[in-house]
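Researcher: Let's continue the batch. This sequence belongs to ABC transporter permease subunit, and it's 598 residues. Same format as the previous ones, please.
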Amino acid sequence: MSSASIGVQADRPAEIDLVRRLKDPALLLLPALAFLAFIYLLPLIDLIRISVSGPSWSSYFARVFAIPLYWDSLVRTMQISVTVAGLCLLFGYPTALLIHRSRGIAQVLIATAIVLPYFIAILIRTYAWMVLLGRNGPVNKLLVSIGILSEPVQLLFNRGTVLLGMTAVLLPLMVLTIYSSVARLDQSLTRAALASGAGPLAAFWRVLLPLTLPGMGAGFLLVFVAAIGFFITPTLLGGPGDQMFAMHITQQADSVTSEGFLQALGVVLLTITLAVVAVAGRFLGFEFIWGGRKLTEAAPRATDRRAGDVGRRSFGASVADFIGWPLLRLFGRLPASCGTWTVRLMGGLVIAILILPIIVVMIISFSSASYLTFPPPGFSLRWYEQFFSDSNWMRAFWTSLVVAAMSAAIAIALGASAALGIVRSNIRGKSAIMLLLVSPIIVPPVVLGLSLYSLFLRFDLVGSVFGLAAAHAIGGLPLVVVILSASLQGVDTRLEQAAAVHGASSLTVFRLVTLPAIMPGLAAATFFAFLHSFDELVLTLFLSSAELKTLPLMLWGDVNYRLNPVLAVVSTLEVLLVVAGLALARPVLATSRKATSQ
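Model: Same format as before. Here are the structure tokens for ABC transporter permease subunit:
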């Protein structure tokens, strides 16, 4: 018997004692599961019930597919989503490599430039592109100044701007997903290939690329699923021929006569999303959704990881040989500097696309002009004064703060309990439970908002602060569970076992041992849950009222009907909020990067 097995057996009495003291940690899952069952699963089931309540179960669905408007919109949605996912993959991969190959302060700055936009509201990032591409925006002025255009033209409201805007919004998701895959690689494989005489391109194509195929696939599918439910960016940047399927749900929501048919639209979108996720889970495992491994399995040993890497490399290399052999013959003799500069140029372009619109909006917020123009004719604080003196904006601001604080409290209370239950218990099917806990992030927000509306009407929660906070907590809960589960897995359980063996109660163990260890993760989870609620627009469109308006809802109304620098002020304040939050969460992000690279 090995010494390792003896050590494991020696630890078992302490583990059993701790479990007995905790009674059954799996019970900690019940509050979150009960919450999701009532406010998440039940509305979705009711949505499906209404959609099949016509003269026949398929009557409403037959109408959806029989009307060219909806069928064309569905096909268009698939085309746009696939294109956006492909563009994100094309530009996201070299950007992930750029982060991985950078060192020191350069890596920190590049990673920050990618992460920062990811946490800024989609509405604000879309508004930034409206400013950038507007008639008085910097792009038009640049094209006129260099002689490409004789006068400013309308660059907005076409398919190209929709693709650009959606790609810019979803690029950070792709980059972060691929980077997590690249950071886990065994770098000795690439060095061995180069030492064996392979050229830089051959080493990339036959070693690095095959090993990162799972990460590329996960990133492509995550972006595709997110793009299917988009409607904010296409609505603001697209024209009549660029309407996506989710936009029809919001348009039909105000029609009293559309009940049944409206739910059928939502079920169609939900079914497509779940089908894509199911197929992806079959090949990648459902863990790609939360970026982890199966919770029922122990961490693989280094030898197992290398064996798995070799197996994936063999399969991926065969695919690469079949597809890319002509490319290897054509470009195989290029010097390594070509690949290096390609990564730098494409990564730099991505950073510019992500950061430049935000910088332009922040500068415009200090403009002295009475309309949107860049560069501003002068600098002034007039728009900040107007924002803070406008009772409507301030009321919406304080409403958003209250709702976000309540939502974060609900998400933390339920998410922390669920994370403890799923990490510390021996319950079977942990991955399935985790999938349920994080599944709200894959459900299109318009579908979730539509399903919640009927439930909230029944319980008179439409237009209530608590109802809105509870709805927002549906999306905040997955963030909390993922962050705190990762934090708990990093806690040395031997410390908890030692405290339990010496007579400490389960509450004392948590208060004195576990809580201090996960405090950075708890702070980060609280901030991200707060920010998710503070930025939430889609659910708010369905569940708010004329008396209850949040800041994103006010911003949405002004973006649709009038553009002025006050909107830039709101955007700037949110950017500062995100920067402050990320600074507080930096220890957690640094720990996550360290754990990912091991």
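Researcher: Any comment?
Model: The longest helix spans residues 68-101.
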